[in-house]
């Protein structure tokens, strides 16, 4: 809110005080419904404009609901007052006084039938509009008149938590003087209230209109209704699932599920936005709903015939993102097939098969630093690491897990520590080929890079087990035997090559094919996952935060 005012204030100073601007300031404030554009930003802007530069403005006009309020500042013997006009009459009044008085206009567009009066942009006063991201309401302004877009993000959860605390504690102005029992009771009531609000925020998103009103239940029902109607035939959510930019559409589906997030343009101070799910729970359900539909299509072979390469991309996306959902990942781990080494007569059990959904839950995905960037930090358990440079990465993704039921001797700090929990790095390789051999040079490059990715790699990687999981699609080749590491470069040093081969031989390999049977289980798991709200955080690629 303050950020919006500071932006407008700078332009007002340049126009009215410094007189360095050639045109009056025009700003388009863009925010989704429910963020408090009218009651919050609109009211605050009205107050700030009336007090701008010690009351320099003579009048501020507030258009809303086909009406206009002309708020006159107190000037000399003239008392401050508010006059209500019909929309057309207000435009005529402004036209008559525009050369005699200094003013500013606020348009609060809160109805689908409202559009900005075309003629008001030529009245010579500054204009601020409060809009949804739907460009229908203001698109004609951009053609003939320069305006600044100001993107209004949703409130942060911390802002909402602070408001809950302020609202409660404002009832007890002498809170610090209360006795211990009274303070404990107030604190308990505050925690109960926050738990209720937090549950709403987790589901419908950080929107004050729905979090603090009695309509929160209706909003939750609307979210579930729109999600249940979602399918891969609806482009509304499909593009977002595939990782593309999602365009805002002025409909109830978009308004109930999507928020906008401000991002700075490459060109000066211009602002733009990208769309994200309103909450982690909504993002979880969108992905699971769409993935279930894709799985159904792929199981009947319709998806591949219709979408071609998109299907292959979907396999990679689903295989990696499935790891982020515990109940879906259980399907994957249940069907892992061990690829035996030469001479082995028994299968080895993956560490993942010994972990329950409660034990194994990846909390987020992170993209690894590109060449020349600093390390991402320390290694973290239960984080899916992926690379922006997919063509250069040895695998499609990897993560670290810790199993307290498996104990090993740790040589950290130079002496053995018995009973340390076992840690494993799990590599994921998605392929549609029956063979996926690694090269010595690729593996060596990967080991060099992974040491660069993490600042504590040398310490963390000691006594760590390695597992590789190959994911095959039903429409391609299927890996059935252990994959080799081959030397395609005869210039490699013999000793270095031998060490790499020994390291490769120590990696346990597993394989899974997304066949019809598994597809059906995934469909059930995806639909089941929608009932839960413990979804991970979906981190955007660097440069798009």
Automatic annotation (TrEMBL):
Pfam families, A to Z: RHSP
Residue intervals of the Retrotransposon hot spot protein,C-terminal domain: 28-339
Cleavable signal peptide: none
Superkingdom as given in the UniProt entry: Eukaryota
Protein's recorded name: Retrotransposon hot spot (RHS) protein2
InterPro entries: Crinkler_effector, RHS_C, Trypano_RHS
């Amino acid at each position: 809110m303050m950020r919006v005012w500071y932006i407008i204030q700078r332009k007002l100073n340049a126009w009215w005080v410094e007189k360095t601007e050639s045109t009056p300031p025009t700003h388009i404030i863009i925010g989704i419904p429910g963020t408090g554009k009218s009651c919050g930003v609109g009211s605050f802007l009205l107050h700030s404009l009336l007090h701008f530069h010690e009351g320099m403005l003579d009048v501020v006009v507030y258009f809303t609901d086909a009406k206009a309020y002309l708020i006159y500042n107190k000037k000399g013997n003239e008392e401050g007052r508010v006059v209500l006009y019909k929309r057309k009459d207000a435009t005529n009044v402004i036209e008559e006084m525009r050369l005699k008085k200094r003013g500013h206009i606020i348009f609060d567009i809160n109805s689908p039938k409202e559009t900005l009066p075309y003629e008001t942009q030529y009245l010579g006063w500054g204009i601020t509009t409060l809009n949804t991201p739907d460009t229908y309401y203001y698109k004609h302004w951009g053609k003939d008149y320069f305006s600044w877009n100001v993107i209004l993000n949703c409130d942060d959860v911390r802002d909402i938590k602070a408001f809950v605390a302020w609202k409660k504690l404002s009832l007890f102005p002498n809170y610090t003087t209360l006795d211990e029992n009274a303070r404990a009771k107030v604190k308990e009531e505050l925690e109960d209230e926050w738990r209720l609000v937090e549950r709403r925020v987790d589901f419908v998103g950080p929107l004050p209109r729905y979090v603090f009103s009695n309509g929160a239940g209706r909003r939750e029902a609307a979210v579930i209704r729109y999600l249940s109607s979602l399918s891969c035939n609806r482009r509304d959510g499909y593009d977002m699932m595939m990782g593309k930019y999602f365009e805002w559409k002025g409909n109830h589906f978009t308004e109930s599920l999507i928020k906008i997030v401000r991002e700075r343009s490459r060109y000066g101070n211009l602002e733009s936005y990208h769309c994200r799910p309103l909450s982690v729970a909504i993002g979880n359900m969108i992905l699971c709903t769409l993935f279930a539909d894709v799985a159904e299509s792929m199981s009947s072979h319709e998806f591949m015939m219709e979408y071609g390469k998109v299907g292959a991309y979907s396999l990679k996306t689903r295989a990696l993102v499935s790891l982020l959902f515990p109940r879906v990942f259980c399907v994957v781990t249940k069907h892992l097939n061990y690829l035996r080494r030469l001479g082995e007569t028994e299968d080895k059990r993956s560490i993942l098969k010994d972990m329950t959904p409660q034990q194994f839950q990846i909390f987020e995905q992170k993209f690894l630093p590109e060449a020349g960037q600093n390390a991402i930090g320390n290694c973290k358990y239960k984080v899916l690491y992926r690379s922006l440079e997919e063509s250069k990465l040895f695998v499609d993704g990897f993560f670290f897990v810790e199993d307290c039921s498996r104990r090993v001797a740790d040589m950290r700090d130079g002496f053995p520590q018995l009973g340390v929990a076992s840690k494993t790095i799990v590599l994921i390789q998605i392929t549609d080929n029956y063979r996926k051999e690694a090269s010595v040079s690729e593996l060596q490059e990967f080991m060099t890079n992974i040491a660069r990715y993490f600042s504590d790699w040398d310490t963390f990687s000691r006594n760590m087990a390695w597992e590789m999981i190959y994911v095959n699609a039903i429409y391609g080749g299927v890996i059935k035997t252990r994959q080799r590491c081959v030397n395609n470069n005869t210039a490699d040093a013999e000793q270095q090559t031998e060490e790499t081969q020994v390291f490769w031989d120590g990696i346990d390999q597993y394989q899974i094919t997304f066949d019809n049977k598994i597809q059906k289980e995934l469909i059930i798991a995806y639909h089941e996952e929608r009932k839960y709200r413990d979804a991970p955080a979906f981190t955007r690629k660097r440069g798009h935060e």
